[in-house]
Amino acid sequence: MDRQLFNNINEFRTMLGRSLPKGNWYSVTQEMIHDFANATLDKQWIHVDEVRAAKESPYKSTIAHGFMSVAMISKLLEDVFVIKSLKMGLNYGLNKVRFPNPVTVQSKLRMHAKVIGIDDLANNGIKATFSCIIEIQGQEKPACVAEFLAALYE
Predict the structure, then answer these.
(1) pLDDT mean over 100-110
(2) Cα-flanking dihedrals φ and ψ of residue 9, to 5°?
(3) 125-136 and 88-98 as β-strands: parallel, antiparallel, unpaired?
(4) Degrees to nearest 5, angle at CA 72 with 59 and 144
(5) Measured between alpha carbons, how far is 1 from 38 in angstroms, rounded to an integer?
(6) Phi, then psi, of 10 in degrees rounded to 5
(7) Which of 22, 117, 131, 142 is the most core-located residue (most Cβ within 10 A)?
(8) pLDDT at 2
């Protein structure tokens, strides 16, 4: 999948109210889940104990942390568009975060994003608000639905 290319923020402003390209599929591996558990110190058995999860979990496998899906949003957005003139981008915040469906190990995820807000910031920047849906391949309900806010500076 090719990223949508914008030369500058003014070109990006044309995306207000429009969807960005669908992202690439990413497999969620047990190694990713373990790394996230180690980074966040959330080592609940449903995430890290593969044997117990296979026996006791209703999903019959480990599942990724809900916050792991949120943490992937920056990367998933980076994969679908680029603004050539940007010098820096920062996570600004989240609104309306929900985790409608667990992500079992080896699930494949991809992002659907729409630009729903663009506000000016000082220092040649904008605050962009994205409506993000992280789809799970083969599942009706998504892994994560959230509004993601980014501060982007030229």
Answers:
(1) 97
(2) -60, -40
(3) unpaired
(4) 50
(5) 31
(6) -60, -40
(7) 142
(8) 78
DSSP code at position 7:
S
For residues 61-89, give the mean pLDDT. 95
Under CATH, what is the fold of the domain 4-153? Thiol Ester Dehydrase; Chain A (3.10.129)
Residue 108 DSSP label? E
Position 1 scores a pLDDT of 63
Provide the pLDDT for residue 151.
97
Nearest to 62 by CA among 36, 41, 24: 36
C-alpha 9: how far from its chain's center? 21
Amino acid type, 66 = G
Domain ranges of the chain: 4-153
Closest C-alpha to 47, from 74, 72, 65: 65
CB 112 within 8 A of CB 87: no
